[in-house]
Amino acid sequence: MRRASGKNQFFVMSEKIVILDFGSQYTQVIARRVRECNVYSVIIHFNTPATEIAAMKPSGIILSGGPSSVYAKDAPLPDKNIFALGVPVLGVCFGVQLFAQFLGGKVEKGLKREYGKGTLTVKDGSCALFAKLPRSLQVWNSHGDKLTKIPAGFKPVAGTENSEFAAIENREKKFFGLQFHPEVVHTPRGKEIISNFVHGVCGCGKDWTMRNYVEQAVEEIRAQVGKEHVVLGLSGGVDSSVAAALLHKAIGSQLTCIFVNNGLLRAREADVVQQVFGKNFKIKLQYEDASKLFLDRLKGVTDPEKKRKVIGKTFIEVFQEATKRVGQAKFLAQGTLYPDVIESVPIGGNPSALIKSHHNVGGLPKNMKFKLVEPLKCLFKDEVRLLGEELGVPKEIVWRQPFPGPGLAVRILGEVTPARCEILRNADAIVVEEMKLSGLYYKIWQSFAVLLPVRSVGVMGDERTYEYTIAIRAVESQDGMTADWVKLPYDLLEKLASRIINEVKGVNRCVLDITSKPPGTIEWE
Ligand code: XMP
Fold it and tell me: What is each CA distance from 205 to 1, 37, 55, in whole angstroms?
């Protein structure tokens, strides 16, 4: 139920690094690395006027990579005046080409695309970017074009096998260019390079912490909300849970959370939410048990898209009705995250963004006359988890695996019936319990059970059985866009299968899903 407000507002931190996005798939990774150095960062569109950037008072600017060539007809180019702001600039990959383009160097098509691991040799160890780093570093390259003449005022400071200008510097102006990607994990010391830039070169402190964030966000929420009341749809997922805890800290009893039981929840889900938020946090919680309505409407529906539509529409109805009972609320709070509001640059486009969007159909309708409060709007997911810990939200919720809005319905193939929900709920509880016991639950992206309504023959004791199949799905992923199946240990698989078949009535066979994404999806639907 996400409807980002769209406007790319940013949190007011006095120190910040501004990242100009030229369409790299790694732009958000750069922003996260900077924040991991405890420095706030914001991503803005590449053609933002230099005057606007100056008004943001950045401590430094990072030019992201991007799939284009600076010489391409429709190359994304920044306002050239950014180089006259007197602010340190770090150009990454395509960012280096921009220095050449604007400050007088030369870029040529490389004979071969440099892709993958390389070894960087630092020739000038006095360059601030490489302070306290060894002279030889493993780096990750991904570029076709290559710098062949460096701009006036620059000096080469490091090279790779393929390029003598893998890192360049204009010390006087504090401009740096890196042909490789310091932000990716395949450049193991890359974070230190970024830290050297933000701390050593730009002089930033370490003020961006979730502890500081709580303080400032609480003030901002109070200023925005005043004495009015706020409603929040609490799903039990990480984002809405952390938003609830933060809002509660800021405005206490002015917050009412609405928790809708759609009948498609996991075992104990409704109890946990009521216990944690109602009893422990003492948040005003309105529990809406609409499971019968949802399951009635799902009767006979087998088409996956149709199921999603029915669930989305019913949710809106139930939620809308529930808000009426809350009374005087003027504000609706949402757990919108930063990646939802970054104005993305489609060049070299990221088609996965399109694939993802179907998940979020059915945002709340515009005619709900609420003003929005989005207190997580400038945070990345990993920051939301840290914020949750800071606020005392239990680990079970803060570090839980993603669970889709339509719940068990996307894990029951064919018709969703109360009996099938019960079977899947029981099987899923075993998967979660065993994954937690094995220590793997918090290490991987998702692990769950899927119900296949195909019956097959089995024997149990002396009896012949004819029951359903459970598929076990466990995947590793960074963001859900791509995923690999996890090679779970055999003894764990054995335990899962034996417990599920023995303990879950209605199941007599267990299989393992070994499909990666692509070509598969994570959920079966
Ligand atoms: P797929 O199945 O498309 O899922 O590979 C990718 C990730 O998205 C989650 N997912 C959803 N999340 N609402 C959500 O909030 C949804 O409707 C939804 N459908 C799938 C899925 O669990 C996986 O992490």
Answer: 37, 9, 20
Read off the tokens for 466: 């004819």
Residue positions counted in the chain: 525
Query: Position of tokens 């749809």?
Result: 233
Yes or no: say if 409 and 365 are a contact pair by the CB < 8 Å rule: no
Q: Is-catalytic flag, 181?
A: yes
Q: Best of 239, 316, 360, 522 to mutate for ligand 1, by most ligand atoms within 8 A of CB?
A: 522
93 is catalytic: yes
The verdict on 421 and 321 lying in the same domain is no
Number of the ligand 1 atom closest to the C-alpha atom of 2: 15
Pair 390, 501 in one domain? no
Phi, psi angle pair for 77, to nearest 5°? -120, 145
**Alpha carbon 271 to chain centroid, angstroms:** 27
Q: Is the peptide bond before 519 cis (omega within 30 degrees of 0)?
A: yes
Q: Which domain holds residue 373?
A: 210-398
The whole-angstrom separation of Cα 262 and Cα 244 is 20
> Does residue 411 lie within any of the structural domains?
no
| Per-residue model confidence as pLDDT tens digits over 78-133 | 999 999 999 999 999 999 999 999 999 999 886 677 788 999 999 999 999 999 99
Q: Which of 181, 204, 383, 434 is catalytic?
A: 181
**Residue 217 and residue 191 in one domain:** no
| pLDDT given at position 145 | 84
Query: Number of helices and strands (H, E) in the chain?
Result: 15, 18
* Residue 236 near residue 285, CB atoms below 8 Å: no
Q: Tell which residue, 486, 487, 495, 390, has the closest CA to residue 434.
A: 495
Instruction: Give 10-residue mean pLDDT values along the chain (525 residues).
Output: 39 86 94 97 96 97 91 91 98 93 88 83 97 97 86 95 92 97 95 98 97 95 96 96 98 98 96 96 97 98 97 96 92 94 65 42 67 95 97 96 96 98 98 98 98 95 95 94 96 98 97 96 96
Q: Say whether 183 is catalytic.
A: yes
